[in-house]
Design a protein that fits this description.
It contains 18 helices and 9 strands. The chain is of the alpha/beta class. The protein has a domain at 123-233. The chain is globular. It starts with 19 loop residues before the first helix and ends in an 11-residue tail after the last helix.
């Protein structure tokens, strides 16, 4: 990669991280970068960038997993969040008072290197997996999840060799997903070796964890004193690294909910790219209810804050972390919500995210926008097919990549409770005051939802 200096706008790039845990993670990723060669000049190589813009709990993971089926689209392996945090692009490390940043900041060169090393496609063919690359990706992921674990690449390679040996004894032809079996075996080895690792924080079903580690207790509170990657923690999957020509010629897809506050920065970060936006919407009742479930789950811890929290329905004596740990994103004005009800906090987070999207698009009328609804993606067969046809046409990709999911239906990802339409109604009584709020109703109307909440799916 060309030795690119950070942009002049990145004024604090040389100051380094203030959190010692982040500093350790940065040092370890610096060492690992010697074998994870990035795409040369990644920032300027990207010519077509599609940003999936939506708040947390809006269905972005479901949509991204659908898009991973198209081989002509490029992706990052999971959320950009860990790299943004390590590069100083997220609160509280961005020098701002919320997630919002107006332009380039932090360590632009680090961000370019790490994103350029990650861009690519999933590998589904067992015989086409580069296991050496997979070991590198596993170590990278474990560094951002458990940065203080003293693991080396050689140790991860040894663990992987054992996991592959176990799988070979079973045989990939025996059915199921052999790569899933390998990843679960690695998780079990890691948890057995390192007591501070609790796989219940991983994006794996509780039933799977209970099967491989039946005596493991369920976790409470954040998974570390500093959170770099939000739980549920991504589980590495076999991946094919993109070439520079791939990046130049294909569409890059990115989905990370906090990016709704960083759209201008992304446009500056990719100066040669045509930026397009998929605005993914979900009715306020379901979305805000899902925010509420996330706050009450063992996942989604973001960072401890200096202000004491007294959030009704969240802050309780039996949950000591609830006095200072904020969850999900930090919207502008979050400081005024520290003594609000949980429903008010969730509604404010949802409103702020969509407001940021609408404001960005109003400032940048040249940007091509596709508005999709989550309800259509999980709706009837005809609704799914219509949404997928529209999506494929807009992206310029072959709809055949998405036909099978359109026929069988798509299972929502990162679900805290089993998905079904209108399940948010069970929280209607506690949500009613915030759903009737002027900000919520105004945004709902702008997104095409009826003022009659009883019609929301």
């Amino acid at each position: 990669m060309t030795n690119r200096q950070p942009d002049p706008a990145a004024t604090d790039a040389g100051s380094g991280p203030h959190d010692p845990v982040i500093a350790v993670a940065r040092q370890r990723l610096d060492a690992l970068s010697a074998v994870r060669a990035p795409v040369d000049d990644f920032r300027t190589a990207v010519r077509d960038l599609v940003v999936i813009a939506s708040p947390f709990r809006g269905g972005t993971t479901l949509l991204t997993e659908l898009l991973r089926g198209a081989p002509d689209l490029l992706h990052f392996q999971a959320e950009m969040q860990p790299v943004l945090r390590l590069a100083g692009w997220t609160y509280p490390d961005n020098g701002a008072d919320s997630e919002r940043i107006a332009g380039l900041t932090g360590d632009v060169a680090f961000l370019e290197r790490e994103l350029g090393s990650d861009i690519g496609n999933p590998v589904s063919d067992w015989n086409g997996i580069d296991w050496s690359r997979y070991a590198q990706d596993v170590l990278w992921r474990w560094i951002v999840q458990w940065p203080m674990l003293p693991l080396t690449l050689a140790e991860v390679e040894d663990m992987l060799e054992k996991a592959l040996g176990e799988q070979a004894a079973e045989g990939p032809e025996q059915g199921g997903d052999p790569t899933r079996a390998v990843s679960l075996a690695l998780l079990k080895m890691l948890a057995t070796r390192c007591r501070e690792v609790n796989p219940y924080y991983a994006d794996v079903s509780a039933a799977e964890i209970a099967e491989i580690l039946p005596d493991l207790p369920r976790p409470q509170g954040p998974h570390g004193d500093t959170v770099i990657e939000f739980a549920p923690l991504a589980v590495p999957k076999p991946w094919r690294r993109a070439t520079r020509q791939d990046v130049v010629s294909r569409t890059v897809i990115t989905k990370t909910p906090v990016n709704v506050y960083k759209m201008d920065a992304l446009r500056a970060f990719f100066p040669e790219a045509r930026i397009r936006v998929i605005h993914l919407t979900r009715n306020p009742g379901a979305a805000i209810s899902s925010y509420r479930e996330a706050w009450l789950s063992p996942w989604f811890f973001n960072a401890p804050v200096g202000l004491p929290l007294d959030i009704g329905g969240y802050t309780e004596p039996g949950r000591p972390w609830s006095r200072n740990w904020w969850k999900l994103d930090f919207p502008p004005g979050w400081q005024d919500l520290t003594r609000s009800s949980l429903e008010e906090v969730c509604a404010a987070q949802w409103c702020a995210s969509h407001t940021a999207i609408f404001e960005f698009l109003a400032r940048n009328k040249d940007i091509d926008v596709l508005r999709l609804t989550y309800e259509d993606l999980i709706g009837t067969a005809s609704e799914r097919t219509r949404a997928i046809d529209e999506l494929a046409d807009w992206l310029g990709t072959d709809r055949s990549h998405f036909l099978e999911p359109a026929v069988r239906g798509m299972t929502p990802m990162n679900s805290i409770t089993l998905p079904k339409r209108a399940k948010w109604y069970r929280n209607h009584d506690v949500l009613r005051p915030v759903l009737a709020g002027e900000d919520v109703m105004s945004l709902a109307a702008e997104m095409g939802y009826s003022p009659d909440v009883t019609t929301w799916p």
